[in-house]
Amino acid sequence: MNIRNLVSVVIPAYNVGPHIVEAIDSVLQQNYPHIELIVVDDGSQDDTADVVAKRYPQAILIRKANGGAATARNAGIRAARGEFIAFLDADDIWLPGKLRAQVEYLGARVDVSMICTGFSHWTSDRNGVFPDLLTMIPDQSDVAPGAIDSELSGWIYHKLLLHNFVWTTTVMMRRSLIDRIGFYDEKFRLGQDYEYFLRASRETEVHRLSRIYALYRHHPGSATARGNDYNYGASIMLRARDTWGLASPNGESISEREFRERVHKIHFMSGYRLYQRGNLATAFDEFKLAVKERPLHLKSWAYAALAATRAILQ
Length: 314
Fold this sequence. Notes:
With about 325 residues, the chain is of the alpha/beta class. It folds into two domains: about 5-225, Spore Coat Polysaccharide Biosynthesis Protein SpsA, Chain A (Alpha-Beta Complex); about 255-314. Helix content is about 40%, strand content about 20%. It has 13 helices and eight strands. Helix 8 packs parallel to helix 10 (about 230-245), helix 11 runs antiparallel to helix 12 and helix 12 (about 280-295) runs antiparallel to helix 13. The longest helix has 22 residues, at about 255-275. It is globular.
């Protein structure tokens, strides 16, 4: 049974002892009273779970073996009792007013089941020091709390295929939408949120509030920074295309050329990151796939040749 007006906040956490206090405090400082706080410790090897247990007795703390963010979010969803579910990564933070603005918007738009917001990037300096939080909050006095970005709102599936502008930390969903689309796909160690939002965008309009309501923290320990040798992004896009095509439910679409250009770019950038890390064989495979999508892109051919040559000489 879902509790009306309750927002269940699901926070997956893995080795985020230095950051999780700021994340949770940003939830508790929201000007919305009906909050259920769920922290899922995904087998952390630091003091993450102990910090939560000692400082936040009101939180539902779930401890589990490490399985990745998708498994942790799914555990949180299963425990959630709220009419609404909001996601927050344990190293990010929310800015004041986020939850109230989203709940009020969804209350006024019963036809919309998912809402996200604008966000800013929060990057440390060379010494790992992050800028003062107050310097990161922009003046948004001219932006109404419930104003939406019309270009990034509506039936956005086809737009998401070209650019994932939905950041997990900003998302709130109705529980009824989750009941329709199911859980996160646990096969994806990275990109599981992208796949999830593509799936959601087949079921509902997704609206994005114009205001910046979250800070996305960049640090070397994050899953995004660590990267992966498997190209989850391209795999997710190709599966979406094969399942649903290139058009949103309202008929708006992108072209096959635009789609292939996007897939090419993902393969090329993945290959380049792998090449820089010295994983030459896998880099070569990625450059080959980039060439397949854009046979006349000389830079893809050049890097494929470089990766192959260096791999042979190793």
